[in-house]
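Course assignment 3, question 2. Fill in each field.
Student: A.L.
Task: Predict the tertiary structure for the chain below.
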Amino acid sequence: MTVDEESVLNQHRDLVARFLGLTTDGRVFIRVEKGKLTTTEQVALYLVGKTYSKVAGYSKSAEASNDELERELGMPGGTVRRVTMELRKAGWIAAGIRGSQEVVLNALPIILKKIDSEIGTSESG
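Answer field:
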């Protein structure tokens, strides 16, 4: 069975909208207070945003370089390298070209569920 990336992303769109904002030039803004997220969660969430940015046509790629993560998240290079290694080991992200990375589509629901449970934005119903 073929899985369409866009349909998977649509399933989680409302939850992602609570966590992230996108600009038409491809930038990703995390709406959750940084203090409520670990550095690992910040990087994972940012990469989720890059995936949505690509599908929306705001970015050419779903990948983010270490330099982009450092700049946009305000993290030191050593922290970004450590976190991306942890995320690759967990199977949440995959290495791209020249030190870039992107979220693994199958990991997207896991990432969102983990963050949602930790910051308590779920709407029970």
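Instructor remarks: The longest strand covers residues 100-103. The mean pLDDT is 90.
Grade: pending
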